[in-house]
């Protein structure tokens, strides 16, 4: 059983998957920081500081609550559509950032692929180059 486990772990696919997961987690931190620390403040500034997280529809209770937290603390059922709006804005910001990262990566890949490879000289080319060299020496 141990040998089977060792063979399973030693497979290239398992190692590749583990590396992918670790890199994905590291990339997630970069994306979250870019969105939370750069994009969302810009979006908030463009929207004049409107924060949708406190927008809700109160479904019950005798009194109106000023904030979503107060309504939830009182146990009043609410539809917190503002949290959903914030999640959609966050999703769009993350998608936009990932789109630009992928676009940049694809552009770099195309440059690498487009670079013409210098063909290796054939024996005939070498003979011809030697003849040219020798005639230039004369």
Explain what you see:
The chain is mainly α and 138 residues long. It folds into two domains: 1-45; 51-138, no CATH class. 72% of the residues lie in helices and 3% in strands. It is built from five helices and two strands, in the order ααβαβαα. The chain has helices at 2-10, 12-46, 68-73, 81-114, 123-137; strands spanning 57-58, 78-79. Strands 1-2 form a two-stranded antiparallel sheet. The longest helix is centred in the first third of the chain and has 35 residues, at 12-46. It is elongated, with a radius of gyration of 30 Å. The N and C termini lie far apart (77 Å). The model has no long low-confidence stretch (mean pLDDT 84).
For the termini, the CA-CA separation is: 77 Å
Q: Characterize the biggest β-sheet.
A: 2 strands, antiparallel
The tally of helices reads 5
| Helix proportion | over 70%
Q: Kindly estimate the percentage of residues that lie in beta strands according to DSSP.
A: under 5%
Alpha-beta classification: mainly alpha
Mean of residue pLDDT?
Answer: 84
Whole-number tally of structural domains: 2
Our Rg estimate from Cα atoms comes to 30 Å
Shape: elongated
Number of strands: 2
Ranges with pLDDT <50 over ≥5 residues? none
Strand order of the largest sheet: 1-2
Q: Name the helix and strand elements from N-terminus to C-terminus, one letter apiece.
A: HHEHEHH
């Amino acid at each position: 059983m141990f040998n089977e486990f060792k063979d399973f772990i030693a497979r290239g696919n398992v190692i590749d998957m583990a590396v992918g997961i670790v890199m994905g987690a590291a990339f997630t931190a970069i994306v979250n920081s870019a969105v939370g620390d750069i994009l969302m403040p810009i979006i908030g500034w463009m929207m004049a500081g409107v924060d949708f997280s406190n927008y809700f529809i109160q479904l019950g209770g005798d009194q109106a609550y000023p904030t979503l937290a107060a309504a939830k603390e009182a146990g009043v059922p609410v539809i917190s559509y503002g949290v959903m709006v914030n999640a959609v804005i966050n999703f769009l910001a993350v998608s936009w950032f990932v789109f630009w990262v992928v676009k940049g990566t694809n552009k770099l890949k195309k440059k690498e692929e487009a670079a013409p490879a210098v063909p290796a000289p054939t024996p005939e080319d070498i003979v011809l180059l030697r003849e040219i060299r020798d005639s230039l020496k004369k």
